[in-house]
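Re: the pair you flagged

First of the two:
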Amino acid sequence: MTDRIDEPDRDSCCDCPLAPDRREFIRHATLAAIGALVAAGMPSALAAAVVPDVVSPRGRIGSNPTYPIPTQDGVQIDATNEVILVRWKDAVYAFNLACPHQNVALRWNAGDTQFQCPKHHSKYREDGTFISGRATRNMDRLPIKRAGNEIVVDVDTMYRQDENPAEWAAAFVTV
């Protein structure tokens, strides 16, 4: 006869004060990975760009989310509002999260400092310009303006480079 060990009640872990929530776990895992990269000799600026920051709006002006002005070059993603914020070379851009080819969520590839579509592998520079792949145009930009120390993104309007070239080219804020 073998002894049977009862499994603990799985719901009992939910009440444990030591169990971190998912967001906290991801934050700690990301910080640990960045720390390991820095310890291995990777420059801190590059290590900080490995994983884009997940952000939420600080507030709203009407239906438009507001975000703090990014303090350094990098990528921030607000999946809820489908916004990518990029600070690059003294400019801040706001992009639609979806690839212009078939609306798949774009990903940031820090190693190559470019965005990539995971479905058809279209690639884009930090400022949203098309590099290669199946897409036929640049990433779609959202109108953006500065209000004090905040960036206001108009999520109800989108500029396609092929349809609104002047508006697309002007859709950034200098910092």
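Second of the two:
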Amino acid sequence: MSAALALLRLASQADFYETLEAKGRRLSLCIDRAIEKMGVEACLQRSRSMFTLFFGRKKVERAESLDGQTYRRFFRFMLDRGVYMAPAQNEAPFFSSCHGDEELGYVGNTIVEFLSSEFM
């Protein structure tokens, strides 16, 4: 109960959710720019601190149309570099208020590194 109470106090602080949104926006901007620049058939969908990178489509409309093989390579690539992503692209990884610019920058740069190695 102490942990739950501490979480509620943290989440009720001014600008808590706005800060998460700003972090998510910075992360997604980095990835979206790389996708656009490289012409990759992929899209990033995000809500605040939850996000998923989908391969095989510029817009997700049906799960059957996604590129699961590329996602598996992406998952392994990220894991080998110390970033644990959701093991399936129909799940969403997320970051927390504890993750700062350094950690999120590393994640963004590592995703861009994967895109470069996979599609360039």
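Strands lie at 42-47, 50-55.

-B.
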